[in-house]
Amino acid sequence: MTQAPTRSRARIALETFFADPEFAGPSLSPDGTRLAYLAPHRGRRNLWVRGVDESHAEAVPVTHDTRRGISRYHWTGDPRWMLYEQDTDGNEDWHLFRVDLDAPDRPAVDLTPMAPGSRVFGVEPAHERPGTVLVSMNPDPMSIDLFRVDLATGRTTLELPQPGVRETWLTDREGRPAFHSVMTEAGDYEFSAVDPDGGRRLLRTVGGPEHPVGVYPQMVTPDGTGLLLGLYQDSDDLRLVRIDRETGEETVVSAVDGTSLDTLGLLGPGLPQTLLTDRATGELIAARYVGDRPHLEVLDPDFAPVYEALSALSDGVLESVSSDESGRLWIAGYTHDREPGVYRLYDHATGESRELFRAHPQLDPADLAPMEAVSFTARDGLPLHGFLTLPVGAERHDPAAERLPLVLVVHGGPWAHDTWGHDPEVQFLANRGYAVLQVNFRGSTGYGRRHLTAAIGELAGAMHDDLLDACDWAVAQGWADPDRIGIYGGSYGGYAALVGVTVTPDRFAAAVDYVGISDLANFMRTLPPFVRPYQVNAWYRYAGDPDVPEQATDLAARSPITMVDRIRTPLLVAQGANDARVVQAESDNIVASLRERGVPVEYLLAADEGHGFVNPENRIRLFRAMERHFGEHLGGDA
Length: 638
What we know:
The protein is built from eleven helices and 35 strands. It is globular.
């Protein structure tokens, strides 16, 4: 493990960690003449546009949202129009809005007016018909259909109805069905070719449990002759495989022994994408893999020199790229533990580059703590990987040094994974004097089929044991004080925090549950209706079916609400009132039960948030409360 910086720890203002970034998400226009990005405007993160050689002082804000920051936007084939997606106070009912770049002060137009409970799922340019986009959405909440939207008029026409429940068309670049997929009642995935006459030919059946959130990635090749899928085949590692539309022949396009494709991009905007494609042709150029540091495998020889040049511009890891359609200009963003959100503009014709901007220029990398990859073994022999972040100035090499208070940070999902890079929550805790440990417990993605499926039936069981084993490892290494360990997590991580203070009530000195599940059966029953049919390989397979009596009994036994009378650990609970995934009742019921017993619990309820806090004032409120909570009960800086 590398040595810590020798400088002493400088206290950084909480707002510096959790205010909106000054710049984020840049991308080039198709012709390379303009630059779009997200930056603060009117108190929220809004969309700005400027010439590629202009400064931010010359940029124009083209959206004017004062209620909630924008995170998703799209260039179109028409230089007049841009698109962005927005929900209402975190309810995840995403709508698609049009911005007129010729009149940026005009109000945005909602191109997808729908009733509550319906949302936009995806947006793709229509290559064969400029001036239109293809939008996946569900005006009928139970049917996710493909619509064509005319950008100028807003007229919407049904292009391709969903073929059935748990079924979908996989389309080529012109929006024509090339393949068909269906999840069977048993949970298997069947992929078929779609012939010109509409007939289907089964090409491949894929087992379900190792794909709890679906087979991902899925991408039809630009010429429509092949289907790229993330498959395990006969390996423990997730690899990229091409299935030929005519013959069904499988060809491994990309694979790295001992390493799996990084599928975090499935979870939402702003996360690293699994596959990188050419802006003009749609051809695959690189694939991302999990590791102590994530890394890209270059698949297109023409991209190799670009990748080499971009990688040389940072000692971090290339995370995002945006180019013009000619492939001359590139914007590169980098993953880095102590230098977050640095973007550079590179001209491949001249070889020249310059720093475009920094998301958090007020953060000095020397004041931030290195994140180190660690590994250890669970009590049943399963290899576990994680990340340890120690405060700046902590003595890593001296066994006699004072042991630190430790916060175990548990990721959500559970079908996600922690990765090396800048994490404001981790850096904030380290800056307040805590050792911070993240572990990719069984059920986490990215570490192979065996590691993933070892979580089946193990909620509040071996999945929890992995977290305890991680804490024991940190204590044995001499980093952590066993009497000053806290647990914090969001979503599934919030559930894990509640399990920690119910299943093992004497183990943690403090806990924070952030939009966490307290009642597994209620959680599954209150998922949005269009989500429930797809839970065959997810919550129903890994936890149980609440409509099967014996499984419902087991779900209750693994639910913190059933064991709430065991909670005596100081607890902080945070919840968004509009959460569509983990409804407010999951937090209300825990808090009400504790208050009825006279057990102190702090409850933060944000009326304008959903599954996680987006507005900076709410994030600051949450972490201010966490700072006090852990400071009082673990002894870190408050």
